Amino acid sequence: MAKLSVLLHQIDNGTVLLPEFQRGYVWNRDQVRGLMRSLYLGYPVGGLLIWETEPDQASVRGGATDGGVRRLLLDGQQRITSLYGVIRGQAPAFFEGDASAFTGLRFNVEDENFEFYGPAKMRDDPRWVDVTRLFTDGLQPFIKDFSSVPEFTVYLERLNRLRQLLDREFHEEKITGADKDVEVVVDIFNRVNSGGTALSKGDLALAKICAHWSPARQVMRDQLKRWESVGFEFSLDWLLRNTTAVATGRAVFTALDAVSATDFETALTRSVGYVGNFLEAASGRLGLDHDQVLMGRYAIPVISRLLHLSPGGRFADAVHRDKVLFWYVHSALWGRFAGSTETVLAQDYEVVRESGIDGLIASLERWRGGNLEIQARDFDGSTKGSRFYPLLYMLTRVKGARDFGSGLELRAEMLGRLTSLQVHHIFPKALLYRAGYDRSQVNAVANFCFLTQDTNLTIGKRSPQEYFAEAEEKHPGVLASQWIPTDPDLWRPERYPDFLAARRELLAQAVQSFLTELRNGASAVAATELRPVTVVADEQDDVRSAQVKAMAEELVRLGYAEPALDSEIADPVTGRALAVAEAFWPDGLQVGQGRPVVLELDPDVADLPRLAELGYEVFTSVDALLGYVTRRNESASGASAPSGSLASPGSSASSVAGPVGEDEPETGTAVDVEFNEAMRSVYDRARAEANYHATYFLSMLAEHGSLATARKLLHAPAVSDGFAALWERGRLDLTVEALVVQPRFADLFTPAEIEIAHHRLGQFGYH
């Protein structure tokens, strides 16, 4: 058994450490609250698994003692780190993560609840005791604080009981013996953590490498930060794939077992150089100069291997470079590395060794059944997550697409100060929604083009019937340069599907022509190197985008992982795109804990059954995902779920008002009754006039009533699904927010609540 106070002291003096292969701290505040509550109530919280090892057997984080046995924490990191952070008021030396998860915890001496500091609730209330202060300063300050209150004895007993957690003993199991090397211990770790944060194959490989070259992980992280600083984000596993390819010519990480620390360091340096060569080519020749348009990342280790086998570690010449880029683009477009990555990499490494880039192209062609042609239907995708979005950007950069406003080619050297580009919806979103088109049609890739930010702002929400003719008259040929059908009849909203079909044909022809040039090397030598440009974020005039962004920010604030936005999910067997998720957590909402999570707001165009079969947890509404997280946090904190946490995967909540329950009494002031009736009326109108049925929301209103429901919606971190649905229908007048801002209901809400409603409505064009 190990007493908590002793464990904390051992962390202080560097006796208890973390092995380098352990992932970082991933708990959130509710999990910390739940741990403290369980300990305070005397509930079991699990034991610890300790690896006792000599200094030369494993690489550690957080420093180490000079000689002697090290006690490496295998199971219990999250719990002990949380307790150290709360009790010491700072993170331990081995910490990697977000320290706000355990900073500012308070204990209420009256109701014995744990919560994190909220100034509005706690500033002038001495009953909320700073838990860290209790442990660092002892009971004496609080004896003085509470000496004059009748509950003095009760409060003091509760504080003393909390402070006695230092005497809590944890059961320890130990792994000892010279035969327990890193590989054996990691296997034990993964078995113990089967329901928690298991290690990947890459983690295991790095653990072995770090045992012999301790800076390895940090050196790799430093390089990833350098790439991030120039606009490209890669993972540690991905860099390790490249290094393994260079060091061994094999795809499996276990191949690194035979690689010495010195050889690994050399291979890492070389692979970084090869990746740099590729990024220069992708940016300078294809214009793929930032992270969102760099597709097919797992084709790059193949290119690293190819360059390693090439004289000087570089492309032989411009023609060779173009052939490699041809293969890269096609392997990305068709999902060559969507699944069974190690198997496919191994095949391609062997082809590289035997026949170089020509063999890779021939192999890819066979894999595709002889078809490496781009067809118009390939541009059917929507949103910036579609795998054909980067192709549109590539065309814009390499084929001299021109700006509608200035008439200049969208190249850095041509634009001068106007180097910021922005995605432009050719047919404005609001126009298409009013015409009855759905979200996937509105955000079709064929409805995108790139313009300077100034021109995009100038065009605003005008119809192409207005600005196309002006642009063509001022700059002849500018429409054709952007692959815009020149038939004016196709510029009308009612012909929008025909416009998309015609533009897809033009885009497919242009891409096919350029890729043929790459394969044949026809223009390789004469090609001008493209300088990077800046692509700025879209204006937040799309409610769905704003809703997803606000949701992601809220989840990060709550301690969850940051999702990938507009992320394609491919079938690991066929490479077929299954969905383009608005948000995607590939390693779970908390890294390494739980299944991959997908937010897919266009379920009709996604293969949900296949996603479920592959083990993804799929949500089709922001409200549902936020409701799930709320319940998850309540469970972690030990609090009972309040009534009203109704959302579940696939459900859809609404911001539109609905009728209250049949048995809800209509009591209160005249304005209360009027608001109640207004909520009933707006629900009926939404159903009759906008064909919007807020079925989920009915139960919410029945349980909470109109006022409480309105307040819940106003205080939510993101606008609701109903608000977004009504915006798409051009009927924000039917939202709860539109009711709240009416002067006749001003007395029912606080100024802050009314301001929230005003802001939401104004942000999305309703005044």
From TrEMBL:
<protein>
    <submittedName>
        <fullName>DUF262 domain-containing protein</fullName>
    </submittedName>
</protein>
<dbReference type="Pfam" id="PF03235">
    <property type="entry name" value="GmrSD_N"/>
</dbReference>
<feature type="compositionally biased region" description="Low complexity">
    <location>
        <begin position="636"/>
        <end position="660"/>
    </location>
</feature>
<feature type="domain" description="GmrSD restriction endonucleases N-terminal">
    <location>
        <begin position="6"/>
        <end position="209"/>
    </location>
</feature>
<dbReference type="InterPro" id="IPR004919">
    <property type="entry name" value="GmrSD_N"/>
</dbReference>
<feature type="region of interest" description="Disordered">
    <location>
        <begin position="636"/>
        <end position="669"/>
    </location>
</feature>
